[in-house]
Structure formats: structure tokens, C-alpha cells
Amino acid sequence: MKDFSIQYDQWKPEEQKLREALCTLGNGYIATRGAAEESRNNEFNYPGTYLAGGFNRAKTKVADRDIENEDFVNFPNWLCLNFRQDNGKWFNLEEVKVLNYCQTLEMKEGVLVRDFRLEDEEGRITHIRSRRLVSMRDKHMVGLEWTFTPENWSGKVTFQSALDGTVINDNVERYSDLESQHLHPLQTEKLDNDSMLLQVETKQSKIRMSQAARTRFYHSGNLLDLTSETTEKEGWIDQQFTFSVEEKEQYHIEKIAAIYTSRDRAITESTLEAIKDIERANRFAELLQRHEQAMERLWHRSDIKIFNGSKTQQLLRLHIFHVMQTVSFNTIGLDVGVPSRGIHGEAYRGHIFWDEMYIFPFLNLRFPEITRSLLMYRYHRLDEARYAAKQEGYRGAMFPWQSGSNGREESQVVHLNPDSGNWIPDETHLQRHVNCAIAYNIWNYYLASDDRQFLSFFGAEMFLSIASFWASKAEFSKEKNRYVINGIVGPDEYHTSYPNSDEPGLNNNSYTNVLVSWLLKKGLEILEIIEKSRKRELLQYLKIDEEELQLWKEISEKLYIPYINDDIIEQFEGYHQLKEFPWEEYKEKYEDIQRLDRVLESEGDSPNNYQANKQADVLMLFYLFNEEELQNIFEGMGYQFNAEMISKNIEYYQQRTSHGSTLSRFVFSWILSKYNKTASWENFEALLVSDFEDIQGGTTPEGIHLGAMAGSLNLVQRCYSGLAICDDALWIKPDLPEDIKAIAMRIKYRNHWIGIRIKDEKLLISFEEGWSDKVKIGVIDQLFDFEKGEKRKFSLKAASQ
Ligand code: BGC
């Protein structure tokens, strides 16, 4: 195992779908799973190609109702390449003797390599080495190369290169009762002896995708002059090339494809663009070189070194890699958000949730340009959010829990429990806290980037619209003499209603109320930061008057927070009255109770009846804010808050959490880092392997968990390095866990590149380059002015004494 690669050295068909997800190559515009070129969708293989923002809606009758889902479309498979000897059977890894197999994800280069030797029934041994890329530099270009060596035979071989538009959405078994045909075949065409075209269109959203592919054969560096046979079927085109190969000779097959869609910018029409690129394309090696240079640039910005040469380093890099496959410079301006499961599979249908809150901190300090673009995805959907708020009788803007193409609510109305086979009403859309996350993200992007133009124009409009929504959602309770927020769901999705109640929603989710208090105040602060003229403009445009601003202040100071015994923040009003959950009994009864909701529903019960959580809820507060910030927020609301409460709350909720979401491990690792280093490290380790080992038993093959992946990076970046932005300075206060001896990374803080190196109780900070000559950096508790080009070393030993 090397730090920059992931290697699988055995052919294990049962693991293939997991490997496919983990070996997905993408460039922030398009991604292709790490499926074998010769495979089709079957028990062990699931080739999938996805387009950022590539959604399609379809209706299905489920449990006697017509439901509509917006799916993340599996677009045509461009990978298809196969061979057969003497008109025999097409090669299939499951039907031959596999002599050696090695599949390597080369993360540095962004290349997937498969190297294997196989022996067929007649004892013919063939060696195939395949390399593949999805170009980071030329976002429409993808390519693969086979090095084909007949080791002990000579004879006639036919190679088939195809574009397969007959694919359906079939990655998630739970969705198999739902409509899965999203593509309408439009066109197939032989372009030339070695190139072909396929065009499809999504049935409802009418996204046209054109793929043009060119397949060429080389021997001893020379292009082979071969005649092909083209076969066209509906949604499928292939070209077959037959020639004789010689024992021990090497043949190179290069398949290069260009992919365009009708949504692309600077195009006339997608087929013409794809054909043009294929005509202009050089050889695979050149494509590879350009791609590798772009990868190098990305790594230069994003690598986090921890120097322990272990699996930890390798997995951190895997996480960085997949963040970059999902969103990259190619994402900028695409009008797409960041899907919680990457563009690696079909789970959660490519939807965008609050997971941005876990992903943006990594991007903010390396690729602020990307965060800006992802925030613009929300901005462009502001009118839809306004409409949603209005429909429910509120002011301002109410963004959806799950967002897709146009920003309407995409959460399912019913979902399938695979354990029981029942379709269950889904009320998770009531997670209005996603609006707090968007506001928090806007503010934190601004803090990290100093992008005043964004804040004053787009950011403020979104922020204030969200504040307006919350101000109209909060109600005054005479009984409590405080403002309350009722009928919502908090981050812990296991609780969506009170026991035996037909009414969905809960009252006073503390996490949400605290964030609303914070954001209403921050909204007022933002109005003071932006230009006066812009403030006037916005208030008038958004119809926010002085009276409303006064109300924001009042609500923010008087929101109700339920408590249990003065020091435990109650998750929501009434949580404490729920029954305790018999954890031990269930741990004995079931092998895995991470998804307790499914287990209980199968028994005719519900987590709504218990103090049993899927994930961190109240505890999220300790991740988002530091002690001092929380003290200010709570005291501002007239509540007591002290440091001791943090550990008490952690203890209380830790015993009541099943970690049914990978996000939970991250939050626990973070909040425990100060109080229980061993437990924190255990959670960090679980987080690191959560996708690599598919700890949820089957979810990773349906897409990686990007929030958890980026969360692990954030832990190293913010938690262990103690990085924070406050009082107009970047603060660094390292607190490394036992198992991490050193950290080195570069961050982009307000247009300045800062190098940070922590090793042997020493901290080296270098102000590498930037727009201004000075930058304020605080170390532990002392503030310094750094000059451009300046490097300084600090002893952490002295500081910690
Ligand atoms: C979690 C949510 C998360 C979603 C998408 C769910 O399982 O409970 O908090 O946003 O997955 O990652």
C-alpha cells in the first residue's frame, strides 16, 4: 500500500461494486465508475457514468400512489472494450482462469490501472494492462488504453469497442421498483472507420448527451491500418476490428472519447462538438500528460501530509482525491451543487443536502472559487425557495432539504425499508435546518475568502432571505414567554414526530433554535458590513423594514431552548420523556443496528418512541462553534452555558447514538478530541475507513459519502491544527493526537497562500504569496504580522507549558 495509491491485488467479484465506487474517476463535470471495460451491468459489475447536475424526473406508482422522483441519471457507458478469439465467446473475467489480477487507483496521476493475466479453456494466456483517465485538463475528454499481449498463442482476434446508451439506473436495489429508464436513444452514427457517435436524451429533462469515440490500434509504435465493422442498434453502437496477433508481441489499443451535453457552454450543438474534439484528439499519451499536469496542480493546492507513511495518510489522500473528482475547477460555473454521495453512484439520487457544511471548510481554504460556484447553485434557486416559503405561509426563502435540478423539494414522500419491504412515509423533508447550514456556509466562505463582492451581492440576499423565513417561522409562546419553532425535524432523522402522533414534526429542536438565534444576529451584522446603498437596496427589494429587523433581534434573544436538568440541552422538547432504548438487547439480537430505524420498523416499532439517535444533533453545535462562541450565543439568549456542559452533553448523547449516518463519526471524533482523545481517535479511524471498508455494509457501492470524507480532512485541518478565523486573523493552535506526529499543508486564506508545518513540537508558518504585503496570523494566543515571503518557527512546547 503506497501513500498515493490504492491497490487491490486479487480478483474478488463480490467486492467489485465497492471497488468501482472507490475507483471512480471524475473531473467535477463528469465521472465514470471504476468498472471493467469489458463488463456490463450484472451481479458483480455496475458501469456508471454521471454528469454533474444530470437529473431526470420520472413517475412510478408505489403503494397505490403516483410518486415522482428526480434521479441522478446513469449516462451511456463509454468504457466498453472487449475481445474474442476466432469468433469465440467475448472475454469475461468470471469465465476464465485469472492468473494474476491487480487493480490500482493511482491517485497522484488520477489514473486507474488494471493489470491481469488470464487463461482460457484452451490454455491460451493473455496479459492485459489497462489505463484509464477522465481528463482534469480537458473536461470533455476521457480515454483508455489497453496493452494486449498474447503470451503463448498467436491467432485471429476481434476487438469490440462500443458506446452503450441502453443503460438504465440500477445501482441501488431499494429503488428497483421505481422507474429506471431515463434515456431516450436519439442517434448512432459511424463517423469513420475508427470512430463512432452516440447521442441520447434524458426523457423528461431533455439533456442531450453526445459521445464520440475513436479506437485505434498500434504495434511497435505504428498505427495499424484496420478495417472495422460497425453495428448499430437502438441506443448502441460498436465497431469491431479483426486482425492476427503474434505470440509475445504487444499491441496498444487506444479508445478516446469526447463527451458533450446540450447544457454545456460555448458550444453550438453537442454532437458537433464531440466530433470536433475527436478529430482533433491526439494520442492517449498526450491526453494523459495534460491530465497529469492538471492533477499535479490540484494536489499542490490540496495535499495534506501527515508523514506517518501509514494507511491514515493513504486514506486521507483517498478522501482528498474523491472531493476533487466530484468538484474541481471544471465545476466552476456549471450551475451544480455538491451531491452528498459524490458523482460516484445513484444513492440519494445525486441530491444536495446540508452536507455542504462538512465539505466547504476544506474547499474554502484551498479552492474558494469552487465554493463560490457551489453557493451560486443555491443563489440561482432562491426564487424557488421563496415560492416554497410562501406556499407554507412564511416570508423569505425556505430552501429544500434535498435539492436537485431546479431547487424544488426532492425528498421522497415514501421510502422503502429493505428489511421489511414496506414503503414508509418520509417526513425528513422537514429538516429546515438546511437553511441554517446555507447561511452558515455563506458566512464561513466570506470569512475564509474575504470575498466582499459575493457577500454584499449574492450572499447577503440569500442570508437575509433565510433570516426572514426563520423570523416568520418562529412564533411567540405566551406560556413560555419565549419564541418557539415548531413542526420541524432536526439533524437526527430518527425523530420525525412525537409517539403516536399523526402530525409530523417536532418542537424546538435545540440545534436549529441555536443556529437561528446565531443567524438572525449575523443577518443584522451583515447589514452593517455591506455598503449602505446595497443595504437600502436589499431591504427595499426583500421588503424587510425596521420593525422586522427589530423582530430578528428580539427572536434571536428570546428563542426557547429546552433543557434537561439545567445542563443537558434537550434535543427537542419532549425528547427526555421518550423511553430509554435497550441498546444491549438489540446489539445482541442484531448483528448491525446502525440503521435502527429499519430494524425497529420491521418490528412494527419506531425510533420516534425512544431516546435513540441516528447521528449527532445537539452535539453538532460543538462542532460548528467553539466554547466562546457558544457562550456568547447562549448568553445572548439568556441561557447559561459553560465548558462543563460540553462534556456532559457529549456523554449523554454518546450513549444514545447508533451512528446510522457516516457524518456522525466525524462529529464525534471532533467533539471528543478535547475530552477523550482515545475515543476521538477511534471515531476518526472509523471515519477514515467508513467508505474504504464500506462499514455500513453495502452503501458505498451506491456512492461515496462525501461529507464524511471531507469531514476527515477538516478534522486534520481545523481540529488537529487548531485552525480558526476570528477577529480578522488566521489562528493556529495545534493539538495533535498521539498517532499523528506531523502535519504539512498549504492553505489559501483571504488570497494569501500560507504554508503550515507542525512537527516535533514545532510550528513553521510561511507566508508564501498573496495580494497584500502583510497578513495577521495568531499562534496559540499571540498575534503576529507576517510579511510576504516571511517564515517563522514557533516552539509549541514552550507555548503549551
Ligand atoms: C443523513 C443526513 C445526510 C444525508 C446525505 C443521511 O443519512 O442522516 O444528515 O444529509 O444522509 O448524506
From TrEMBL:
It comes from the Bacteria. InterPro entries: 6-hairpin_glycosidase_sf, 6hp_glycosidase-like_sf, Gal_mutarotase_sf_dom, GH65_N, Glyco_hydro_65_C, Glyco_hydro_65_M, Glyco_hydro_65_N, Malt_Pase/Glycosyl_Hdrlase. Residues 317-713 form the Glycoside hydrolase family 65 central catalytic domain. Residues 725-782 form the Glycoside hydrolase family 65 C-terminal domain. Residues 8-263 form the Glycoside hydrolase family 65 N-terminal domain. Keywords: Glycosyltransferase, Transferase. It holds the Pfam family Glyco_hydro_65m. Belongs to the glycosyl hydrolase 65 family. This is Trehalose 6-phosphate phosphorylase. It comes from Marivirga lumbricoides.
